[in-house]
Amino acid sequence: MNTVHTTAPTPALDIQRLRITLPGTARPVLDGIDLHVDAGETVALVGESGSGKTLTSRSALKLLPPGADVQGAVLVGGQNVLTMNPDQLRALRTGQVAMIFQDPRAALNPLRRIGDFLTESVTLTRVMPTTRADATARAVELLQAVGLDSSALRKYPSQVSGGMLQRVMIAAALMGDPALLLADEPTTALDVTTQAEVIALLAELRERFGTGLLFVTHDLDLAAAISDRVYVMYAGRIAESGPAEALFAHPRHPYTAALLASTPRLEAPVGRLAAIDGQPPDLRQELHGCPFAARCPLATEICDRQAPEPVRAPDLPDHQAACHHTDRLEGSPVDV
Ligand SMILES: Nc1ncnc2c1ncn2[C@@H]1O[C@H](COP(=O)(O)OP(=O)(O)O)[C@@H](O)[C@H]1O
Ligand code: SF4
Ligand SMILES: [Mg+2]
User: Fold this and answer.
1) Which residues contact 336 (CB under 8 A, 6 or more apart)?
2) Using one digit for the tens of pLDDT, what is the confidence trace for 260-315?
3) For residues 207 and 18, what is the distance between their CA atoms, to the nearest angstrom?
4) Residue whose CA lies nearest to ligand 2 atom number 3
5) Domain boundaries in the chain?
6) Of the candidates 72, 69, 75, which has an alpha carbon nearest to the alpha carbon of residue 13?
7) Comparison of pLDDT for 146 and 334, the residue scoring more
8) CB–CB of 62/225 below 8 Å?
9) Which residues 6+ apart lie within 8 Å of 237 measured at CB?
10) What is the C-alpha to C-alpha distance for residues 255 and 236, in angstroms, rounded to an integer?
11) Gap between the Cα atoms of 118 and 135, Å rounded
12) In the chain, count of helices (H) and strands (E)?
């Protein structure tokens, strides 16, 4: 009899108990982050500004602030990037993992033609050298995939619009055939129509190339529209994670519920648009309990004393919330 061994495929990204402490702070800036992106999956990382989204996504490239004390593991295709040597890191950054930034213009040299920008990363730095002709052919193919033609190769960044430039950045990111694409607020600098086009394009490319996508945003509607799964961050921790549909329909963490209640919606009556009162805790402040306690309408005495561990939803184990009183939210998307 033949025995069939089935093993789970290696995730594109698997962050395990990541803890980062920066010099001169009273508590870790990232505290026990667990996050994974499967091959071909789109995962959104959402949260207010300063919650640690950018640091988390940059950890996949080991792009960390100077002096950072780092614990835990960041596995890309099963390899821990935190222990890689410089050669391995260079290969990682020009091959397996690519990043699309918020402002494409700031990431491009205005004096270099788009064609040179697209081809130089693979011809100059890739461990397996690629000929210039092969690189150009690949650049043309990818420009077409993002809806541009080869005439873009000869243009300078100043000759194309912001939306076109973000398409160029996406094409550049795909040049090294990455298994993982990190997009950090990639549409924030674009107008609404172009934003929608870039989002549709990312979704299409994900399907076509099977790339895992970690999409960082503070925009909940965008996260809901694009992602399979969502992680909600608060003060350097994962407050809630789960399938996008379940998380947005039935949030299990008061912070997610409050964020959803404060997101402006056309159909919402005036008066429901209040922002969440108060501020996230400062990095100079030590935390002993739940980081959201000072702003949370459900907080009780235990919340100040004991940090909550993730609790699985009874009907959906993949949906987890780090909250002592998650049961009190059941069935209620916004009533906190
Ligand atoms: N290089 C750095 N040096 C010192 N503090 C930093 C550095 N990078 C980020 N931080 C701090 O870490 C926290 C998280 O930052 P970040 O990951 O950029 O948040 P987000 O992307 O969610 O807005 C913030 O409080 C920020 O001030
Ligand atoms: S643990 Fe307590 S303070 Fe934290 S979110 Fe839950 S109820 Fe609110
Ligand atoms: Mg950021």
Assistant:
1) 254, 257, 258, 261, 297, 298, 329
2) 887 765 454 443 334 688 889 999 989 999 999 999 999 999 999 999 999 999 99
3) 29
4) 293
5) 13-227, 247-329
6) 75
7) 146
8) no
9) 30, 31, 32, 33, 291, 322
10) 13
11) 8
12) 11, 12
Strand partners of residue 243:
229
Return phi, psi of residue 32, to 5°. 75, 45
- CA dist., res. 72 & res. 69, Å (int): 10
Mutate to test the pocket of ligand 2, among 252, 253, 287, 290 (most ligand atoms within 8 A of CB): 290
Taking the model in full, what pTM does it have? 0.90
Edge-first strand order for the sheet with 69-76 is 30-37, 13-21, 69-76, 79-80
Chain CA centroid to CA 98, Å: 12
Distance 238 CA to ligand 2 centre (A): 13
Q: Please name the residue whose Cα sits nearest to atom 1 of ligand 2.
A: 323
13-227, CATH topology level: Rossmann fold (3.40.50)
Digit-coded pLDDT (tens) for 181-239: 999 988 877 777 777 888 888 888 888 888 999 999 988 888 998 899 999 999 999 99
What whole-number distance in Å separates Cα of residue 272 and Cα of residue 269? 6
Best residue among 25, 55, 233 to mutate for probing ligand 1, ranked by most atoms within 8 Å of CB: 55
With 80 as the cut, is the pLDDT of residue 125 above it? no
pLDDT at 122: 66
Q: How far is CA 312 from CA 248, 263, 321, 335, in A?
A: 16, 25, 7, 21
C-alpha separations of 288 from 254, 304, 309 in Å: 18, 7, 13
Residue range 127-168, pLDDT digits in tens: 455 788 888 998 998 898 888 999 999 999 999 998 889 889
Name the nearest CA neighbour of 69 among 85, 55, 80. Answer: 55
Nearest CA to ligand 1 atom 24: 50
